[in-house]
Amino acid sequence: MPQGFSKKNQSSVDTAYRFADFELHPHDRLLKQAGTPLALQPKAFDALLCLVRRAQHLVSKQELIHTLWPSVHVSEANLTNLIVSLRKIVGRSAIRTVSKHGYRFELPVDGEPGVARSTYEKFARAKELTAQRSLESVSQARDLYWTCLAEDPAFAAAWAMLGRCCWFFDKFTASSPANVDLAHACFQRAFALDPDLAGAHQFYTLVQVDTGHANEALARLLERLQRHPGEPESLASLVQVFRFCGMLPESIEAHKRAIAIDPAVATSVAHTLFLSGQYKSAIEIYGGRAAYYLDAAAWAALGDEQRAIDLLRERLDRMSLSTLMTSLLASLLAVLERKPARALKLMQTADTTREPEILVYFARHYSRIGKPDLAIQALQQAAENGFLCAPQTLTTDAWLHPLHQHPAFASVLKDSQNRIHQAQAILNSFKSN
Predict the structure, then answer these.
(1) Angstrom distance (rounded) from CA 246 to CA 420
(2) Angle at which helices 409-431 and 372-385 pack, to 10 degrees?
(3) What number of H helices and E strands is found in the chain?
(4) CA Rg, the chain, in Å?
(5) What are the residues whose beta carbons fall under 8 Å from the beta carbon of 27, sequence distance 6 or more?
(6) Are residues 202 and 226 in contact, defined by beta-carbon separation less than 8 angstroms?
(7) Are 214 and 245 in contact (CB under 8 A)?
(8) Distance between CA 227 and CA 216 in Å, rounded?
(9) Which candidate, 275, 274, 233, 241, places its Cα nearest to that of 257?
């Protein structure tokens, strides 16, 4: 990249966080509204800065108190009074109270210090495209993130979002095997620039669990929660990590803690409930999201196979799915329609390298069509690739029941129990600190 590009861009960098008609200048400790400076007490300024830096994320009362009064014992009333004074300036709806836990800055932040306004506008547009989660929209977003980083190589959030895009492509396309390495590099760069970047921690979890490093993700998230107690996004990530570690009760508990703090936070608990045999609950939670496979599988497990068939046919006809998701849905449909040869072909030609969790669903399909050897192999491969089928699922799932007589079943069950002990040791080490 030519040096002149970056230097030219840096000459017009913004010096403030921007939201609504406000500008918050950290270096000058100045808040402006429509260009007019506003009077703000030092503690109120620090509180606002802390909230804005973590916009859209919960900031706990403990964290705010520690930041504002690091070596003084004060009551929560001091913090409450500060928030009241801030709301009088930036608006009551700008700062949301999360009952018993803390506060969240709700206004969209459309600029931050050190990033040129034009660069941040591209970044905001790229985030909108990323959220659409289609191959086309993520491809457009990826190009915009690259442009942002060409203009500003020190833009940590852009590195994290680029990493997310690269991982998306690695999972759902066969475009380039370099995507996974690039995703790792992007996240490492983001952490080097900002070790506390919430989005980087949240999205990097996806990479770690799908590449067989759930225990490392568990340790990282537990350490983060020590610094940011009650952060719902980290708890939501733990829902997935605990499930990958075979710890289903802990996964459900993490979900309960997350939604107690923020009822709107999205978690993957529906998959945990499914593996726990709580099929009706899985359907209820899964139903509000873009539905693909899980509710159909749950209806089938409940014995309503026709309903599952209707859902699968409708989605396969209507949706534009990745090759792997098509194999997952179509193989279940083939199982239910008593077409074992088709189901077998779909599963054996699917690339599950970056989706170890799907191997457990395939194991259920194999078992259902009378292929116990292939089912056992799928469970073993899932564990080797990073997803541990919980002992509860192995022993109580009716679709896996035929495997109980397989010579290797006891070994699979014991391996699952041993691996859970490793993850439990990590959890216990943080509980004792």
Answers:
(1) 6
(2) 20
(3) 22, 8
(4) 24
(5) 15, 113
(6) no
(7) yes
(8) 17
(9) 233
- Please check whether residue 170 is in contact with residue 180, taking contact to mean a CB–CB distance below 8 angstroms: yes
Strand bridging mode 95-98 / 102-105: antiparallel
Q: What is the pLDDT of residue 338?
A: 97
Amino acid 133: pLDDT? 78
At 7 the pLDDT is 44
- Among residues 241, 210, 243, 238, which one has the least CA distance to residue 385? 210
pLDDT at position 256 is 96
How far, in Å, CA of 290 to CA of 178, rounded?
Answer: 29
User: Which residues pair with residue 109 across a beta bridge?
Assistant: 19
DSSP bridge pairs for 30: 25
Give the position of tokens 């030219």: 8
Residues 49 and 33: their CA atoms lie apart, in Å, by 15
Nearest alpha carbon to residue 344 among 367, 322, 360, 323: 367
DSSP lists the bridge partners of residue 60 as 102
Is 104 strand, coil or helix? strand
For the entire predicted model, the pTM comes to: 0.83
Q: What is the pLDDT of residue 12?
A: 54
Q: What is the pLDDT of residue 169?
A: 84
Measured CA angle at 310 (ends 306, 312), to 5 deg: 115
Tokens standing for 176? Answer: 């380039």
- pLDDT at position 246 is 97
- Cβ–Cβ under 8 Å, residues 243 and 271: yes
For 58, phi and psi rounded to 5 degrees? -70, 135
Read off φ and ψ for residue 265, nearest 5 degrees: -70, 140
Which ranges of the chain have pLDDT less than 70? 1-13, 174-177, 287-290, 433
Is the torsion defined by CA of 274, 277, 280, 285 positive or negative? negative
Predicted local confidence at residue 175, as pLDDT: 54
* Backbone torsions φ then ψ of 97, nearest 5 degrees: -85, 125
Contacts of 358 (CB under 8 A, 6+ apart): 324, 328, 350, 352
Q: In the chain, what is the greatest distance between 2 CA atoms, to the nearest angstrom?
A: 76
Tell me the two tokens of residue 305. 């196979």
- Phi/psi of residue 150, nearest 5 degrees: -65, -35
